[in-house]
Amino acid sequence: MQALGLSAPAVFTFEDMSDGRTRIVHDYRVSGFTELNLEELAPVVAGVQQEQLDSLAASLAR
Prior knowledge:
With 62 residues, this protein is α+β, with helices and mostly antiparallel strands. It has one domain (2-61). The protein has one helix spanning 38-61; strands at residues 6-7, 10-16, 22-28, 31-32. It has a two-stranded antiparallel ribbon with strand order 1-4. Strands 2-3 form a two-stranded antiparallel ribbon. The chain is elongated, with a radius of gyration of 15 Å.
């Protein structure tokens, strides 16, 4: 995103659940200006992030 002139911070929030587990909430917001159609780029970025989160979940489940 940075090379496109965009800012895109990722925020992770950790929430205690009643069963003793921890829920991780991921928030990702993009801002800035680009001539690209971000609606077309969004599914690609979301897919990469989902792969990373799935990998994290698998590592934590061990």
